[in-house]
Amino acid sequence: MNADNIPNYTILEIQELDVNYGGIQALKKINLIIKKGEVVTLIGANGAGKTTTLRAISKIVNPKSGAIIYDGRNITRRQAHEVVQVGIAHCPEGRRVLARQTVFDNLFLGAYIRSNQAEIKEDIGRQFELFPRLSQRRNQLAGTLSGGEQQMLAIARALMSRPKLLLLDEPSLGLAPAIVREIFSIIENLRATGVTILLVEQNANLALQIADRGYVLEAGSITLTGAASELISDERVKKAYLG
Prior knowledge:
Blueprint: E1 10-21, E2 24-35, E3 39-43, H1 50-57, E4 65-70, E5 73-74, H2 80-86, E6 88-91, H3 103-109, H4 117-130, H5 132-136, H6 147-159, E7 165-169, H7 177-192, E8 196-200, H8 204-210, E9 213-218, E10 221-227, H9 228-231, H10 235-242
Parallel strand pairs: 3-8, 3-9, 6-7, 7-8
Antiparallel strand pairs: 1-2, 1-4, 4-5, 9-10
């Protein structure tokens, strides 16, 4: 039976994960699961370990101990490009588009692990359908786009590797409220296409509104987990993160 057809199939499991930055322990025995097709959000204060969790999954940083199981395979010791090859894409905080390359070239480079040129061009067309603003600016240098357009480009570029799991780090950071709503509408549309999403987001209220489940990180440890609908009404979460 194809794993894609198994109800409640666990696409990602993090087991007892420790990550150190120099002498500082950034993550402490993290345990986390994501089911196929879910949007799961990590919420917490700055420095809690949210970005480090995403970086550990995508192998930008290496864990000290513990395991990362993706799609039934242990990827804890894989290299970053191998993680992309198995179906994980990371859209980092700060967008990090290639400023001196065009929108089209940024998208093309997002498919660097792929070789079928016809399929790559077809997928670029799909991104332009999903992000009409990028279509209008396809020959524009990425560095000249607005912040919202750069965020759209960063997400579209990540999608060019055809991921099953998309890691999104602070997609609303520094954007105007109207653009934030647009970005979150796009995230909901992505969920409808079958992409599983792990979302780190400073706006905990917005994140919990679109997520299925959430984890609360405090000082590198998970202190609370549950359905997003439960967390958004939890008094501890309200007091600490929802204002």
